[in-house]
Amino acid sequence: MSKIIQKIRDYFPLVPRIIIFILTPAAAAVHIASVLSRPFADFFVRYIGCITRQLLAYLTYPFPFSVAEAFLLLIPVFLISLIVLSSKFTDKRGSIRFIVSVASAVPLLYCLLVLGFGTGYYGETLDKKLDLELGEVSAQELYDTAVKLEEQINGLADSIAYDSEGFSVSPHTVRETGDILSGTYKKLCSDYSFLSPINGKAKPIVLSEPMTYTHIAGVYTFFTGEININTNFPPYSRAFTVAHEMAHQRGIAREDEANFMAFIACTGSDDAYIRYCGYMNTLEYIIRALYKTDRNLYSETLSKLDARALNELYAFSSFFDKYRESVASEITGTINDTYLTLQGAGGIKSYDMVTNLVVAYLNQKQN
User: Fold this and answer.
1) How far is residue 231's CA from residue 235's CA, in Å, rounded to a whole number?
2) pLDDT tens digits for the chain (367 residues)?
3) Cα 223 from Cα 108, distance rounded (Å)
4) What is the DSSP letter of 268?
5) DSSP letter assigned to residue 136
6) Nearest to residue 128, comparing CAs of 40, 189, 38?
7) 3-state secondary structure string across the chain
8) Which among 238, 227, 263 has a CA at the least distance from the CA of 170?
9) Is the pTM above the cut of 0.85?
10) What is the distance, to the nearest Å, from the Cα of residue 284 to the centroid of all Cα atoms in its chain?
11) What count of other Cβ atoms lies within 10 Å of the Cβ of residue 8?
12) Could you tell me which residues come within 8 angstroms of residue 327 by beta carbon, excluding any fewer than 6 positions away?
């Protein structure tokens, strides 16, 4: 035991020194340069950050479980171990070095964020990259967009199985869904140069039920490069979430843009169920915006939707009642809103801003 402690004393300070004195200043320089220059931010996230993201995805790929979730669950064990180890340092200098070493985890996370996909928040917006004309969206435009989405859903409904609760039944597991969407993203990477070609798998979260109280359907964990999916959410929601987190993994940082790429990836899939999921989830954003704008057009829109798909929307609302009001969701919502606001990404309301992108995109396709 004494030899192990001695080795920790000898080598432990080396890693935090590299992090604090080399990586952190480099990450800070990249961060500042990204804020000052959109072209630099785009270049870095596409060609340099993708190396960090792919390396992390490669290291965690072999594990069938979420390494990020395992790490969070083991935090109490880590803390106890740190307390035990710190008690072994009898000299003041050794104790200080140990504390600094442990504290270096904070700048390490900062480095992984910036050197991974964090610069994507400061790059050119997706509408500019796709030559989309964004503007104020009228109630009529929302209605017309909803009708287009409903036409696709209605055409797919006969090929979809529904259970007794009203939910559609996915023919794929989370991992299979991830594999299918990975193939779709490979094609998209050749069409859109701003996407990084990265290989990663979608991993189900073990504690999905308690996670639902946070209202989090999925998360791209930047420090492990993993796509983590809450499997407690209904299947039609899960597929869209996988596509959303994969967009983050491929360098799309802003939430509305990740939602838009999820729409493109899902609706561009060869798989009928995944296309259905893409149209359904996007329709939810559109009709939510329409409900706030024109209740009459909102009601008319719902009347055009296939009864089975409409029942699925009602089934999701009933499912979510159990989790709608929770302290956990308020805490995580505040944290997420603060994080996105600090990144200049518009806070959590940015998720809903996907409506503008979808309306402009479908208008462009029509013209």
Assistant:
1) 8
2) 455 545 555 555 556 666 777 788 899 999 999 999 999 999 999 999 999 999 999 999 999 999 999 988 988 887 777 667 666 655 666 566 666 666 677 888 898 999 999 999 999 999 999 999 888 889 999 999 999 999 999 999 999 999 999 999 999 999 999 999 999 999 999 999 999 989 888 999 999 999 999 889 999 999 999 999 999 999 999 999 999 999 999 999 999 999 999 999 999 999 999 999 999 999 999 999 998 889 999 999 999 999 999 999 999 999 888 888 866 656 655 555 444 555 554 544 444 578 999 999 998 887 6
3) 9
4) T
5) P
6) 38
7) CHHHHHHHHHHCCHHHHHHHHHHHHHHHHHHHHHHHCHHHHHHHHHHHHHHHHHHHHHHHCCCCCCHHHHHHHCHHHHHHHHHHHHHCCCCHHHHHHHHHHHHCHHHHHHHHHHHHCHHHHHCCCHHHHCCCCCCCCCHHHHHHHHHHHHHHHHHHHHHCCECCCCCECCCCCHHHHHHHHHHHHHHHHHHCCCCCCCCCCEEECCCHHHHHCCCCCEEEECCCCEEEECCCCCHHHHHHHHHHHHHHHCCCCCHHHHHHHHHHHHHCCCCHHHHHHHHHHHHHHHHHHHHHHCHHHHHHHHHCCCHHHHHHHHHHHHHHCCCCCCHHHHHHHHHHHHHHHHCCCCHHHHHHHHHHHHHHHHHHHHC
8) 238
9) yes
10) 18
11) 16
12) none
Q: Vertex 250, ends 245 and 253: CA angle to 5°?
A: 65
